[in-house]
Amino acid sequence: MQALKGWMWKLGVAALGLIVLFNILDKTILSWTVINPGYTGIKINRLVDRGISKENVVTGFVFYNPIQSVVVVYPTFVQREVWTRSATEGSPANEELSFNTKDSVPVAIDVAVSYLLRADKVPEFYTRFRADDISNWTHGYLRDTARNIVVAIGSEYSFDDINGVKKEEFLNRVAAELNRRTQPIGVTIQQFGLVGALRPPPELANAVNAKTKAIQDSIRTENEVRAAQAEARKKVAIAEGEAAANRALASSLDDRLLAWERLKLQRAYIDKWNGQMPGVVSGEGGGMLLNIPAPAVQK
Fold first, then answer.
1. Which of 4, 135, 195, 244 is the residue whose CA sits 20 to 30 A from 262?
2. In this protein, which residues make up the domain named Band (predicted)?
3. Residues 106 and 170 in one domain
4. Is the residue at 165 inside a domain?
């Protein structure tokens, strides 16, 4: 029994020693990680700066010496970020973009951007930006570039244009220019759009709302007038139709038709007569003749 306990104790110490040894090796000599689908990793030598090439790209299970090397992982599926004034959407900091229009109106906008990092461009991307977390690049370099483009292109439009029929054109131009600047570093802009409405100064916003309400009231009044006119034309058409029908009916009533209708009425009266003369008959003098039965003869 004592031998069994001694053997179990030695086995536990050995297992504990292996665990400690494995942790030491994992932190100092040998470590590993997994690059999941949709991500691309690059294995970087910390001790020798030989640059980053395609040979450094790694996927799946990766073993490395944590003292000598580090593995940086980037997502290669579509990323979406928002830059807004709100502290509850996107970053807690105010990341709205602002610019002045051609007519010197200051405007602030919240935007959403979607982009894709190409897997074959990951080494060049890391070499240029040395960003261990792509989110830092998104809220740094990409936002600064987008802000500069918005300022440059927004100054070519008046506020009425950018708040109206040319809003889509403005956003498309910004997206195209942003994509042109990020393509060389392996980033493709998928979408660039507004989150909410443009924010001009409050006094201008009130004026815009008043103008919009006036236009809506004018359209509503015009529609009501058109509806009233249509209803009036409908009533006139109905009246004209009834008048035409009455004229057609009157023109069809000639003397022969009237005589025929009188005969039909007389025939109907005769058919209903029971053969008895009326009890009261008016005379020609205007008096009344009473039909009095004769008294019975007494025998």
1. 244
2. 34-232
3. yes
4. yes
Cβ proximity of 169 and 142 under 8 Å:
no
Answer yes or no: pTM beyond 0.70.
no
Query: Which sign does the torsion angle of CA 132, 35, 188, 94 carry?
Result: negative
**Which tokens sit at 73?**
């992982």
Residues whose CB falls within 8 Å of the CB of residue 84, separated by 6 or more in sequence, listed in order: 90, 95, 96, 110, 111, 195, 196
Give me the pLDDT at residue 72, please: 87
Instruction: Tell me: do 175 and 113 sit in the same domain.
Output: yes
* Domain range enclosing 143: 79-200
Q: Are residues 84 and 196 in the same domain?
A: yes
Strands 111-117 and 288-290: unpaired
Give the model's confidence band at 65: pLDDT under 50 very low, under 70 low, under 90 confident, else very high. confident
Instruction: Report yes or no on 271 lying in a domain.
Output: no
| Nearest alpha carbon to residue 44 among 107, 119, 150, 126 | 126
Q: What pLDDT, on the 0 to 100 scale, is given for residue 250?
A: 66
Query: What is the predicted pLDDT for the residue at 53?
Result: 54
Pair (35, 137) in one structural domain? no
pLDDT at 45: 76
Domain total in the chain: 3
In tens, the pLDDT along 236-259 reads 778 877 777 766 666 665 666 667
Same domain, 60 and 84: no
